[in-house]
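BUG: 3D viewer hangs when loading the predicted structure for this chain

Environment: internal workstation, default settings.
Expected: structure renders.
Actual: progress bar stalls at 90%.

Input used:
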Amino acid sequence: MAITPLPTPPSRSAPSTFSTLADAFLGALPTFVTEANAQAAALELNDTTDASASSVAIGTGAKTFVVTAGKSFQPGMSLMIADDAAPSTNWMHGQVTSYSGTTLVMNITAIGGSGTKTAWTITFSAPTGLPTATAESDMLFAAPTSFSWIKKTLAEAKTILGLLSNVPAATAESDFIVSGGSPFAWVKKTLLEVKALIGLVPQATGFTLAGGTSSKTLTVAETMTLTGYATAAEITTGTEAAKAIAPDQLALSKYNVGYATAAEITAGTEPAKAIAPDQLKAAGIGLIGSEMFWPTETPPAGWLEEDGASLVRATYPALFALIGTMYGAADGTHFNLPDMRGKFPRIWAHGQTTDPNKATRTAPAATGATIVVGDHVGTEQAGDYKAHTHNAGPSLGALSIAGYGAGIQWRIDSTGKGTSSTSPTTGGNETRPINTYRMMIIKAY
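Structure tokens produced before the viewer hung:
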């Protein structure tokens, strides 16, 4: 309710209107007293306190309540609207936007609690309404559009300020946080790394570098940073071709310069890493299908004796993909190894005249062998010796020829010429050079 303004009071400086103004002024005083008392009563919460059964969700912004008509709610007045069941927990605070009849519209700027309530107590309040802090790091920010104070946690405040909540933890007194990556994020850097970024190198005991008209003494670590030494990760992955490797890194070279693991060697999946001699020895390394002589009767891991054995194709898929059924197959699920037992290997003539009988070479006798006969890898030849003659003059009686001994018998025809002769048997079971046994083995897996 509004108080009727008092009329113009009388003034002694205007004697001609004094009486008229005085009568009017004094006559208005009773009405003024009545209205002032009513306003005072209202300020004592008689007309600024009410209850509402409106179903309203706790939140900021415009909120509408059904209230009693004839209250003294005025636009701009600050009101506290509290949930009857939990007034200290669930509440809203704001300013009156409008009040007409039984409709009260509020602009809520501060809240407590949450949820939709249906029993409210409305009271006059001081125009503060700051949210209650619930943690030491709580902060107040102006809400969008209404610009009222709202409470935010430290993590929420960091987001508003553009700071990452997952800032890396410091591990040394001189650690720095700098932006890096794409998109930019906060990353931790050591003092040395920050110095390298900004181009500062402090006086230290170590190497001396000349720069401009002065020189700087650097530590070993600083020198490595400035001269482009590869990191351990770059050495291991082999991704940095333009950086040097320090002697102390070479001391751990087997593990730092990118040596393949045993699993990578076996699988053949790492083309960019080196293999150490001890790894070669342990792995018995070799291409699938590689052949070599072996000095014992037990082949190393991954190798098999070339003894014509029948193998399951699914067990040795890589070897089967290489040689197939060249050397035989018992059925559609097996294949044979080459059989080199007791045989001399001969290098493929491949069209040359170094093997005059290459066209008559035969396939292995194994069942299912698919090797093409003739001048092809895997074909065989039976034992043989080159054609030759022995010359000897005919005579009667016994004749001795070097290398065959005495006792050669000659036949004499009617003209006295020798026509044939037979020498005694000499030599062993085959024609062969001096030799030694070795096992021929093949890389199978």
